[in-house]
Amino acid sequence: MLTYLPIPLHLVRNGQVLPVDAWTPDGRLLLRRGQRLASEALREMLSAHHASMTETDAQAWQRSRERHLLALRLAGKPLAEIAHMPMPDVILDTDYLEGHQVDGGWLDLQDILRSLLYQGAQATLPLPRIEGLVQKALSLLRQDPDEGLFVLFQALPDLNMGYCATHALLCGVISTLAAERLAQAEDSAPMLLRSALVMNIGMAQPQDNLARQRTPPNPMQRQIIATHPPTSADILRGFGMQDEALLALVHWHHAPHAAALPATQQTGLHLLSLADSLVAKMAPRVSRPAMTPLGAAKSLVLSSCADTSTLRPAMAAVLGFYPPGSYVELANAETAVVIKRGARATTPHVASIMSASGMPLSKYIYRDTRDARWAVKKPLERSVNIHVNLDKIRHLRQQHGV
Known about the structure:
Helix 4 (106-119) packs across helix 7, helix 5 (126-143) crosses helix 6 and helix 11 crosses helix 12 (263-282). The strands form three sheets. Strands 8-7-6-5-9 form a five-stranded antiparallel sheet, with helices on one face. A two-stranded antiparallel sheet has the order 1-4. Strands 2-3 form a two-stranded antiparallel sheet. Strand 7 (349-354) and strand 8 (360-368) form a beta hairpin. It is built from 15 helices and nine strands. The chain is 49% helix and 10% strand.
């Protein structure tokens, strides 16, 4: 899970812009980056809630401070004066970890990717950072695809984390796993993941705003949605991207049937487009509830389209009816979280997290849904108000060999 570090409020001036998101230590958003510390009352509120930042932001902000202090020393400023300088109010793109230095897990990738997507066309050194994210994601996916699905599906309803980055990673994981199931060429996995991470860079912040918006998109927002695929491709060209296959995937991911591409590229394009649509259906909006993974999987299988007749069942099979990270009610009325895909779409491995009487369980209980006593009764909406501990899930999986 994400690591949060204290914000050094004593080094932030009144009226200064905060260049990082301020969170509580348990992950609730207090103040979005770019807001000013406008009053002493706001400072006291942040202090009372132990305002924190992600480890990624903390490291970048510290690099920005070190760079700024070095410039002051080289300019001959007295050390006593330098020692009391406040934190800078700007973090450059180069202050963030470059891709090949990415450490941690899926949520660390999500945090770094969100920053890159928000920077959009203004990002510096974007291509090595993107490639590093891709390679780290592929490494995590090879280690444990079920944990990747679990973490990202758990993150999907949390709109404060940045829906654009969660959406991108989940699309990349799903399309990659589907390609592997279809025995696509070995080099298609990095291509699909790379394309998924950046296909919406042309509307990253609007995408997050739309997820939190209570009203339907206005005409200007609809125009952004309609034009973001070619806009994203243009941004990538501006980065120096010369991979025409990737640029085509990004450009046509909303209109795969209109793309005049070789057959070898068509499959990847359709997988990316299907994953994009599928994740959007399962993602909640303030304006509407999310579709359950079971409903989304059924819509995949039942949709008739000759071009994707073999791709849709493969993608549905990759997720199962109850993908890791989703919630279900069991035959004994317990509430459980899916922790691993099962041998069949209807029999996932689950951990009971709430008793039949509705009481949270401090110790999770492994349930084999092949047993009629603990069969899945129905999927649940994403309204289970329980924080699921990933370390407990890992321990339970290890204990039961799943």
